[in-house]
TrEMBL record:
CDD domains referenced in this protein's UniProt entry, alphabetically: PheRS_beta_core
Keyword Transmembrane: no
Reactions mediated catalytically: tRNA(Phe) + L-phenylalanine + ATP = L-phenylalanyl-tRNA(Phe) + AMP + diphosphate + H(+)
The encoding gene: pheT
Residue ranges of domain B5 in the record: 269-344
Main subcellular localisation: cytoplasm
GO MF annotations, alphabetized: ATP binding; magnesium ion binding; phenylalanine-tRNA ligase activity; RNA binding
Family affiliation: Belongs to the phenylalanyl-tRNA synthetase beta subunit family. Type 2 subfamily.
Source organism of this protein record: Ferroglobus placidus (strain DSM 10642 / AEDII12DO)
SMART domains given in the database record: B3_4, B5
Name of the protein: Phenylalanine--tRNA ligase beta subunit
EC annotation from Swiss-Prot or TrEMBL: 6.1.1.20
Amino acid sequence: MPVVTLYWDELEELVGKRREEILEKLPMLGCDVERVEEDHVDVEFFPNRPDLYSVEGVARALKGFMDIEFGYIDYKVSKGNWKIYVDESVLKVRPRIVGCVVRNIRIDDRVLRSMIEVQEDLHWTIGRNRRKMAIGIHDLDKISFPLKYTAVSEDFSFVPLDFEEEMSVREILEKHPKGREYGFILEKAEAYPMIIDSKGNAISFPPIINAEMTRVTEKTTNLFIDVTGFDENVDKALRILAAMFADRGGKLESVEIIYPNKREETPDMSPMVLEVKKSEIYSLLGFKLSDEEIKLALGRMRYGFEIGGEVIKVFVPPYRADIMHEWDIIEDIAIGYGYDRIQPTYPPTPGIGREHEWFKLKDLVREIMIGLGFTEVITFTLTNERAQYEFMRRKAEPWKDFVPVMHPLTEEHTIIRTDILPKLLEVLANNKHHAMPQKVFEVGDVVVNLKNRLRLAACVTHAKANFSEIRSYVQALMRELDLEWDVKESDDEAFIKGRRADIIVRGKKIGVFGEIHPEVLEKFDLTNPVAAFEIDLSEIFDTGYVI
């Protein structure tokens, strides 16, 4: 979670209170005070409150909570004569762009420091490490409008931030520190996003680096902010930054974004309007609040409101990117009312809780396997079709046999696992340089036919690992579980024909064991024989098994 450094002189100046009073109220904002020093305090905030990643945002929240200011801040945005033309070529690369102009802002080293820190925190949270959203802040007076947001080739060149000589896009991605750090985002791009002014000067190569030409210094008085990305996250980030600079005394002006088929003006600093029922507040909090108490709580949390009858109309500040549902507002009402004023009570319960049979079985199986000399491992539930099926000589169809991951970040994590055994073979492959024999097991969830199933898988590897050895472990497990079992010839291609068997309990197949096929071993780069089994513990439950 983001840790924000707040300097006492700045925070005391913005809030208008002494540090002792501020320190007492800080945890009420939903944060952890990590470290208190003579000149600053380090505070950890949850990722769902990006508006608190700056000293301006924290001061704004504290002034409401400490009854210095009350209610909604109406941020005024003057209509500007600033335009950005979006070229069709960039729509397939990084299609969204928004902008804002901030005039008459006083920049000193504290503002510069806060600006850089909040940018990086927003990149990490809302921007998902710049994948979804990236910010550029520029000296407005160095830019000639209108701007063009377009896509360029890798040979396009300009002077990037912190450098003195021109570099091509290709060179920036290969040599510039930010290019090496974030170049993976554009790894498969055929063209590269670029913001160019009317004189042909590049001002930003999102999401990598700004141009040196538009560097913000302590002499800067007017700012241009651009935010690029793919969805509404760009709007969220821009509204947070606009509010931050407005709180510093800056005057906001709109920027017109002209797409091939539409136009829009940004930033939109109008409030989102949600309706909250009083009965829902009483139901969730467990006690009644008067209208005055609700008003006071909402005002402290910087909301606007209109109370009439049962329904409260709430005006959500534009910088509150975390508010999605009326329950989010009710949570803030509780915070504004004061958690310390809420008396905890024990809810009436019809019975006494006990451990679920499912977990009893998991613990019992773990004890048995450890008693048999196996080491427990825990692997990722996300995997890929190649490891689960191709390497295991098995076939499958998406959705029918496995659940694919939408928009996977890597080729290694494209589906939710349907078997644990391939993951154990990966563990053995990563540990083949260690002494033999190796015996590992895992008890965990898989998803088959869109349903969660509890599985147990185990592997043994050494020079003489064979069918008889793994059968003895299955037999010991069944004996300890007090289950009568039988075997039947298996057709699982992951195992060697003639050295594989299905496990049958009460006439139902619950698993398979045997010697892993040499082709499978080769795919996983294993040199020693492997004997293994995998059992569906959910099937044992389905047979009516009771511990």
